[in-house]
Every structure is written in C-alpha cells, then in structure tokens.
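Subgroup meeting minutes
Present: P.N., E.W., G.H.
Scribe: E.W.

1. P.N. recapped why we're keeping a running log of single-chain structure predictions: easier to compare across weeks, and new members can see raw inputs and outputs side by side.
2. G.H. added today's entry (210 aa).
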Amino acid sequence: MKEIKVRITFTAEVLGTLPNQEDIYREFIATKSPDAASIEDEIEAIGIDGVVEKGITVFPRNKDGVPFLYDYQIKGFFKDSCGMLARVVGKDDKGKKLKTLTASSQIYAYKKVVDGLIFIKPREIPITIADGGEIGRCQRPLRIETARGERVALAISESIPEGSTAEFAVKCLSDEYEAAVREWLDYGELRGIGQWRNSGKGCFTWEELT
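Output recorded in log:
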C-alpha cells in the first residue's frame, strides 16, 4: 500500500465548478451523491449569498472561509487523465500498434480502479491563494448548438490565480498503480482541474512531499 503526499501549484488560474444557487445544487447533488447524508454538508460549504448573480460557478468554503477542492474532483481528474493517456500508442517495426507507452494503457476498467483502489485525503482540500492574489472572476462566451441553431451565453466562474497551491495525499491500495498516479499528476501540466480546462485553465505542476 503506497501513499504519496502531493503539493500542486497552479500554473494557470483555476475556476470554480459548483453552481451558486442552493435549490439547483441541492437537486443536482441529490441525484448524483451516493451518500444522501453528504448533501447538507456540501450545500453548507457553498456559502450561498443571495446577492451573487445567478449562474456563476464558485468554490466551496470551509468553516474558516477558505476555498477548497473536494476529493472527488481529484479522482475525476485522474479518470480523465487515465482515459486520455491510455490512448497514447506506439508502433512496432511492422507498423502494428503497441499500447505500451504509458502506465495508464496497462489499466483495464480504469474507472473502477480509481473508484475502488485509489483514495484522496482529506475530503476537503484547502487552496492556499498565491501571495498578493485574490479570488476574482472569469467571464467567457459559451456557445451551445441547439435545434434552433447556435446560441451564445455568458459563463461566469470564480477564479483563483496562478501560483496558488493545494496539498493532499493519494493512497494506492495496490502498489502497481503508483506509476500511473505519478503519470496522471504529470499530465496536470497539460490539462488541469476545474471549469474551462480545455483552454488551459487549472493546469498545475506537482511535487512530492516527505
């Protein structure tokens, strides 16, 4: 059993992902959460403010008002990373594809592996905002294809600046997955966590803590 203590440092701003309307968030979590008892905890962590605009996505706050990531957001990042890195292939002398270039390509049913054999702690991962930085907002157009044609809306998210850090531990119940975990963390330099990550938001570097 291997535990890796990690510090990630964001190299681009990271955007909040949670809706800031209590009723919408309650309904969504009620349909997605495997543990109904956690619904109230997650809603309370949002810190709903009635004067904030509808539709903005935010970071949850702990009891001290510190923004944080949930453990399942790291797991979601791991699943996304494994799914992409498993597609990295090479070819032998005859041009036949070889899926041996990444540790991720050796994992079968990777979503079950991440869910059942890899765990993140703590549940709430505090984000230390970079010196001189503050929580801001990122606005961008959102294009949606509908039956009536393309529609454009305005998406708004809370934003934590680059240089901010977060620390957590990754526990692997089987040592054979350690190489893959390190590979996924390396992938964070290219594709990050949070909203609009396809544009480079939420990318990070990492270091192992002793």
